[in-house]
């Protein structure tokens, strides 16, 4: 799981990760975020230092692909569909990340430095490498075994 916090350290949601064949089911629930469409990704380092969360590093990409669910040379293992947040600041996302695992191996989100779930300010265009032009990081949660 990942407890998502905003840049001012407020809890804004949770991400739950469940292994499925093939991949990992990612369930996210948020509240208190700006309404609209937001990029959301698994990032390569399990660190969420506010306010900018740059400590989470780039998108989780152990296979060396390009960014984007619609990129013919992609996607990154950590790419997820956009998160839609309603006028009340809440949103839900359920997605299957086919290239992730929770066990061992090169695509495990539990590698030596861990991973983080990051929500961005704007929508992910699902094709532009390396980050989909999704803007600043507005929430982050270190992924931990529950």
Count the domains. Answer: 1
Main sheet makeup: 7 strands, antiparallel
Tell me the helix content: under 10%
Count of alpha and pi helical runs? 0
Instruction: Calculate Rg over CA atoms.
Output: 14 Å
The residue ranges in which pLDDT falls below 50 over 5 or more consecutive positions are none
Question: What is the mean predicted local confidence, pLDDT?
Answer: 96
β-strand percent reads 25-35%
Please report the distance between the alpha carbons of the first and last residues.
6 Å
- Give the number of DSSP strands: 9
Helices and strands, in order, run as: EEEEEEEEE
Widest β-sheet, arrangement of strands: 5-8-9-1-2-3-7
Write the CATH architecture name. Sandwich
Structural class by secondary-structure content: mainly beta
CATH superfamily: Superoxide dismutase, copper/zinc binding domain
- State the name of the first-level CATH class: Mainly Beta
CATH topology, by name, is Immunoglobulin-like
Describe the protein's topology:
Elements: E1 2-6, E2 11-19, E3 24-30, E4 36-38, E5 40-43, E6 83-85, E7 91-97, E8 116-120, E9 137-142
Antiparallel strand pairs: 1-2, 1-9, 2-3, 3-7, 4-6, 5-8, 8-9
What does this structure look like?
The structure is a single chain. The chain has 146 residues and is mainly beta. It has one domain: Immunoglobulin-like, CATH 2.60.40. Helix content is 0%, strand content 34%. It is built from no helices and nine strands. It has a seven-stranded antiparallel beta sheet, with no helix packed on it. It has a two-stranded antiparallel ribbon with strand order 4-6. The protein is globular, with a radius of gyration of 14 Å. The termini are close together.
């Amino acid at each position: 799981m990942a407890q998502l916090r905003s840049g001012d350290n407020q809890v804004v949601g949770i991400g739950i990760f469940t292994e499925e064949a093939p991949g990992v089911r990612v369930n996210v629930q948020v509240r208190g975020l700006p309404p609209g469409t937001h990029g959301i990704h698994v990032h390569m380092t399990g660190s969420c230092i506010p306010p900018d969360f740059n400590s989470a590093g780039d998108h989780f990409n152990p296979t060396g692909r390009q960014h984007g669910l619609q990129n013919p040379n992609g996607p990154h293992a950590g790419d997820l569909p956009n998160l839609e947040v309603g006028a009340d600041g809440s949103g839900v996302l359920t997605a299957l990340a086919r290239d992730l695992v929770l066990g061992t191996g090169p695509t495990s989100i539990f590698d030596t430095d861990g991973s983080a779930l990051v929500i961005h300010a704007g929508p992910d265009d699902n094709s532009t490498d390396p980050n989909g032009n999704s803007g600043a990081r507005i929430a982050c949660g270190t992924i931990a075994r529950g």
